[in-house]
Amino acid sequence: MKQLINSVKNTAGEKERTAVLRLEMDYELATLFEAMSNQNEDLKLKSKQKLEKIRQELLRLKAL
User: Fold this and answer.
1) What is the CA radius of gyration of the chain?
2) What distance in Å separates the CA atoms of residue 2 and residue 24, rounded to the nearest whole number?
3) Does the model's pTM come out above 0.70?
4) Which of 30, 13, 24 is nearest to 52 (CA)?
5) What domain of life is recorded for the organism (predicted)?
């Protein structure tokens, strides 16, 4: 019974984290678009690195 309760808690936590990551991803994509429009290479690189970290975490959570 405890395993079932822990499983439900973990699933809810993962869903919440996934939602937050998707919001972060949307923000970073907008930032990347702005950097590309302004030809800001520094900001482009930083956004791509952040997006890669988000992608890796989403893959770890099996949400992507």
Assistant:
1) 16
2) 33
3) yes
4) 24
5) Bacteria
Q: Is 11 helix (H, G, I), strand (E, B) or coil?
A: helix
Model pLDDT for residues 4-27, shown as the tens digit of each residue: 555 555 677 888 999 999 999 999
Residue 56: both structure tokens together: 């890796």
Q: Is the dihedral of CA 30, 54, 45, 43 positive or negative?
A: positive
Structure tokens at 59: 């893959």
10's tokens: 């973990």
